């Protein structure tokens, strides 16, 4: 059975668990991270020298980095419906997965750490405001894309891209900031709630 190392409150671990739910992959969660076994433990570092979750172990195969993991799971466990083999369709999905990691995540990082995690190191009002502006701009880009597709991030049907993006959208709505009116984004959020995996690992009250 697949083993996922991490904690259920981590957004990146939830990417992996939601993907498993979508693909019907049974897994066990081995809890590592803050509040559980520390990731600087030598046993964990032997699996991931970055000391970060998630990590998976799949019949002796070890992999870290959440977006690499969900791509692997889709490729290895007959996930063509989520991650098609056709080159152009796959490239669009990858584009949005990478956008979530490279552009969207940095935009919300400061505001989220300040307002949800309440870190004392992230309490500068100007930086919070700047992060909120950048985050709102990214959400507007996503809203425009959803207006075009009239369905999901990469097209009319649910794909692997909707897992990292959907969790980020949940984080947007769960963070106490002003949310500009973005109708396609609101509809998308409700549409995701029709999926059992999102209800368990996304829209579950955990930002």
UniProtKB/TrEMBL annotation:
InterPro entries: Glutathione-S-Trfase_C-like, Glutathione-S-Trfase_C_sf, Glutathione_S-Trfase, Glutathione_S-Trfase_N, Thioredoxin-like_sf. Its EC number is 2.5.1.18. Residues 86-207 form the GST C-terminal domain. It is an enzyme of class 2 (transferase). Keywords: Transferase. Residues 1-81 form the GST N-terminal domain. GO terms for molecular function: glutathione transferase activity. Gene3D superfamilies: 1.20.1050.10, Glutaredoxin. Belongs to the GST superfamily. This is Glutathione S-transferase. It comes from Pseudomonas luteola.
């Amino acid at each position: 059975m697949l083993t996922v190392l991490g904690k259920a409150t981590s957004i990146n671990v939830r990417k992996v668990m939601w993907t498993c739910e979508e693909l019907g992959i049974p897994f066990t969660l081995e809890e590592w991270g803050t509040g559980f076994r520390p990731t600087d433990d030598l046993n964990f570092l032997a699996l991931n020298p970055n000391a970060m979750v998630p990590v998976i172990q799949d019949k002796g195969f070890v992999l870290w980095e959440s977006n690499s993991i969900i791509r692997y799971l889709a490729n290895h466990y007959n996930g063509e419906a989520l991650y098609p083999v056709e080159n152009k369709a796959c490239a669009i999905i990858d584009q949005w997965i990478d956008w979530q990691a490279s552009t969207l995540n940095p935009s919300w990082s400061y505001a989220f750490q300040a307002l949800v995690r309440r870190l004392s190191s992230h309490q500068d009002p100007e930086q919070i405001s700047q992060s909120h502006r950048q985050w709102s701009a990214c959400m507007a880009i996503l809203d425009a894309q959803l207006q075009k597709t009239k369905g999901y991030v990469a097209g009319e049907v649910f794909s692997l891209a909707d897992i990292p993006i959907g969790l980020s959208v949940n984080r947007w709505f769960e963070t106490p900031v002003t949310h500009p009116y973005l109708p396609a984004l609101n509809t998308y959020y409700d549409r995701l709630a029709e999926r059992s995996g999102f209800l368990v690992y996304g829209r579950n009250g955990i930002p």
